[in-house]
Q: What sequence folds into this?
């Protein structure tokens, strides 16, 4: 039976390496007492000295009243604030021009348009791309900003209004506020009627698997949908009712998706940005979105 032993009397010099052993032995295998490389030891002590010096020079140790400030009293926040101030000074003249110019004047002035698009692109990447995509291509439930289909209107003033006050954002009284009724959940239509309406709606966009319009579908649509979406399904930007005759679908064009929207109603929510972004940035965002390709 083997056992791990430690005996100072067993410490000896290994014949092969010339290194002393530790006295540990296991099944005849002895442990060498190999010292750490000298460069490693010096590096270790240098890092300790450097770490102590760092805590003296820079803010480091927490205290009951906040923390030590260090002999330099340097703070990364102060540096960021200074860099932002320098950037604002550099960009100030251009931003002032954007702030004072009407939206249509910005788009007609090549220099102002280029500046507004640059500012708007940065703001879009930081605030809008997470929902609408890096290139404004959108996703299911998030509008594509590259096409010419606009739920709330695609004019510069419309886009600015939407950005400022959001959509169905309860904290803003001027928000876009209409919502589609839940025809199924609230018992306004039976499941069979919803299926017929969905089939009829899909005929407007001539989806590949849509059936021919029926008299029942036309009647149900006229009684329940035409007031908002229009008799021919062309939509109404004032009500936020999307067009139904084109191939642009916010939640999908397959029948289950259309049935779900009719049954559950509601609508997407977009935050209001007027309290989060300054007026100049919002104006630049409106110009940038309008110039993506689908602005009216």
A:
């Amino acid at each position: 039976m083997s056992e791990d032993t430690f005996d100072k009397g067993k410490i000896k010099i290994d014949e092969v390496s010339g290194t002393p052993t530790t006295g540990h032995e296991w099944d005849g295998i002895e442990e060498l007492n190999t010292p750490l490389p000298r460069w490693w030891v010096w590096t270790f002590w240098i890092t300790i000295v450097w770490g102590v010096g760092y805590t003296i020079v820079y803010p480091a140790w927490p205290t009951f009243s906040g923390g030590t400030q260090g002999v330099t009293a340097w703070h990364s926040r102060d540096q960021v604030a200074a860099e932002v101030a320098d950037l604002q000074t550099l960009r100030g003249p251009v931003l002032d021009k954007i702030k004072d110019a009407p939206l249509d004047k910005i788009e007609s002035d090549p220099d102002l348009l280029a500046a507004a698009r640059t500012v708007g692109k940065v703001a879009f990447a930081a605030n809008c791309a997470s929902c609408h995509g890096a290139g404004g291509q959108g996703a299911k439930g998030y509008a594509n900003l590259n096409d010419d289909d606009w739920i709330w209107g695609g004019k510069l003033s419309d886009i600015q209004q939407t950005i400022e006050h959001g959509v169905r954002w309860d904290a803003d009284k001027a928000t876009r506020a209409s919502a589609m009724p839940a025809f199924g959940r609230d018992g306004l239509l039976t499941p069979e009627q919803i299926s017929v309406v969905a089939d009829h709606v899909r005929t407007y966009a001539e989806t590949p698997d849509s059936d021919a319009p029926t008299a029942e579908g036309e009647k149900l649509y006229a009684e329940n949908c035409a007031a908002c979406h229009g008799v021919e399904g062309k939509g109404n930007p004032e009500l936020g009712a999307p067009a139904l005759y084109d191939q642009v679908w916010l939640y999908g064009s397959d029948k289950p998706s259309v049935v779900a929207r009719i049954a559950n109603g509601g609508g997407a929510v977009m935050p209001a940005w007027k309290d989060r972004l300054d007026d100049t940035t919002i104006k630049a965002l409106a110009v940038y979105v309008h110039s993506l390709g689908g602005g009216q």
